[in-house]
Amino acid sequence: MTDDATFFRYQPSSANKNEGQKLVTVVSLRSEKNLGNDRSFWLARKLAGEEFELQELNDHDVPAGPSQRVSADEFASDYTLELDYWQQKVRKALEKQDGRLQRGEAHREQGEFYSAEMEYAEALAVDENNVRATFGLGLTYLAKGDTEKAQEVFAKVLDMKAAFTAEHKHMFNDFGISMRKNGMYKEALKYYSRGVELDSTDENLFFNIARTHFESGDWQNCFRYLTMCLEKNRGVKEAVKFCNYLIRRTEKDNGMLREMSAGDNGDTLRSNILNLLRQMQVAAGIELEDAIEKTHEIRDRMIAIEEEDMQMEEIEKDLYNLDGL
Question: Which of 133, 257, 270, 309 has the fewest CB atoms in 10 Å of its CB?
Answer without folding.
Answer: 309
